[in-house]
Amino acid sequence: MLKLTPLLLALAYALIAWRFSSWRLKAELDRRSRPLEEPGLERLTARLAKALDLPHIPVHLYDIPAINGLAAPDGRIFLTRGFLDAYHAGRVTAEELTSVIAHELGHVALGHSRRRMIDFSGQNALRMGLSMVLGRLLPGIGAYLANALTSLLAARLSRRDEYEADAYAAALLTKAGIGTAPQMRLLQKLETLTGGGGRGTPAWLLSHPRTSERVAAIARLDTGWQGTGQKDMP
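Structure tokens predicted for M48 family metalloprotease:
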């Protein structure tokens, strides 16, 4: 039992850290956000709501200049002011912004926030265990190697979530009659909109898959649906 104590402590610490982080994020979002009122988007989100058999899909505006979408742990969907500014400037269309909302809905519907809490807790315990083992086998570099291996795992799990949310959004957009073209166009614009992102970073270290790979995966889904007439939600 004593041998497991460090791992149990690591797991408990990870859970507490996640809870605190979620609380701090909620407080930040409450302080710097408001319901988004944008008629051009509301017309399209109404189509998403109808496809999901929901009365309404509330979207909130997060008042920061970065270009991003966010699914909060409590299930709320946010678009940043930076994204809305890009829309008003004609750099993105209403349909493309709607694809971001659909993607974030995918994170909520698929339980990614809850799964990330479990993954984070497990990764913290794994990091501690690897550090103990590798620290004995490779004194001086064992802890660094354990951190690197755990970071690789975290990046892979995050990329999996992004592919799943992309697939959910593609199915939802298709069912709503909007289609996947805006989703693919926006992905291709994002590197320019956000200043290049992870260019030069090895794909296996990125928290999001390569744009070309995401677009190709959506295109494959779209082709399959056209052949079968099915638009099953993931």
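The chain is about 65% helix and 5% strand.
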